[in-house]
Amino acid sequence: MEPWKDLSGIVVMVTGASSGIGRELCLDLAKASCSIIAAARRVDSLKSLCDEINSDGTRRAFAVELDINANGATIEAAVQRAWDAFGRIDALVNNAGIRGSISSSLKLSEDEWNHTFNTNLRGAWLVS
Length: 128
Prior knowledge:
single chain, alpha/beta, NAD(P)-bd_dom_sf, four-stranded parallel sheet, Rossmann fold, Glucose 1-dehydrogenase-like
């Protein structure tokens, strides 16, 4: 078996895990026997994902509500809950992000620039 297909014992936290690429990453990492910390804003979607991963009777997935646009203390508390779930985090996939409007960067408002910057850069930095 290829080494990347058996990642038993590895704890991976994935941000933006409630849909799209983040959700698929969680499912694939779980198939490789990782323990998953699924983090995102949409708790109902995270619960569905974790229920799917944990359907075999083992608790290998844990949901953490996390808005990477939140203040530093809120993000730190969410990361602490993630850490407490398995006692460690071996790998982090900073997947959460937004695209912003499709226009020239010269046409972005300051509010849109700040929102995009805070989500894609500041949030990833704080989670790390």
